[in-house]
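LOG
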Amino acid sequence: MKKRFLVLAMSLVMMLSVAACGSKPADKNDSDRRDDETKVEESLEETTSPDEEGSPLADWYNGEDRKTLEDTISSMFESQGLTFFVEIEEPDTIIYNYKYTEPLDLDGLSQDDINASFDANIDSIASTIISDIGNYQRTYGIPLTTIRVVYLNSDDSVVYSKDISEDYESSSSDDGSASGGAYDSLQAWVESDEAKLAVQQSNDALASSGMTVNISADGNVLVYEYYLSDELGISELPEDQMTASFESTVEAQKASITSLFESFETMYGLKVEAIRYSYFTEGGEELYSTDITNE
């Protein structure tokens, strides 16, 4: 259970930009937006929350792991103004639903405008979602091919929907522009307002998880420092079991970690040498550390 929790927590930190996007949309006009919303909603009509058992997908949905996932993610994203729940579509689709607790003001925005905003963030964490597909296949024996990410307004209307499969290709335009501008060094990025905001949002989302995260730079190595509450009991595990837990956590996120190298080079003009994941006790004692090199 502790190992699964660590994998989930890392995934959630990587998904924070998705939760935040759409809250500050660009000011554009298009009278066809609501017609587009209707089309998106119609595409979701086959979504089901089954009562029957029998298929691996239905068995997982009716099990405790799904309920734990919903409770954990809802708790983590509470400060972001989102709740989370899961639906499934037989035989091979899991739907991640993120619902805004307060009305999201979309007046003056076309569906294309909304999609462009969310697409850019979905692209940045697509590799994590693809990794999750493999985890579901291996752990639960689900013949999963697709995870659908859906954002709902507070009135249950669909704001955005995207299907992610193992052959997913970026849907955002690749014009070579950088969202955050170029930086002279990795340290300059770490000290930027952009990085500080990312850390703040990450810790807001992790507030109830017993974890906090900090970002630093060691030369040209990007360092993620995770501090684990003593209440999690991780440091009480036998050393080999604790090490194996951390190793499997990082291994499960290898695809996402690799994509970060490309993102930093594309978005910021920085070729990061390695990404270091370090885990500490609440008091600062190092429990585990590993470097993933940019090969």
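LOG (cont.) second protein
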Amino acid sequence: MPECNHCGAHVSERFARVFADDRGKIHACVSCSANAGIAEASRERARTV
């Protein structure tokens, strides 16, 4: 089961398909980011890694 690379929370396969980066890493999930900002937080954290 995929997990958020930021907080370690488990996420669904569907969530991972939508929000993972091109390497399959999930930089933000509903546990560590507001729903409205998941995509933006993911992009921002991917740039800093």
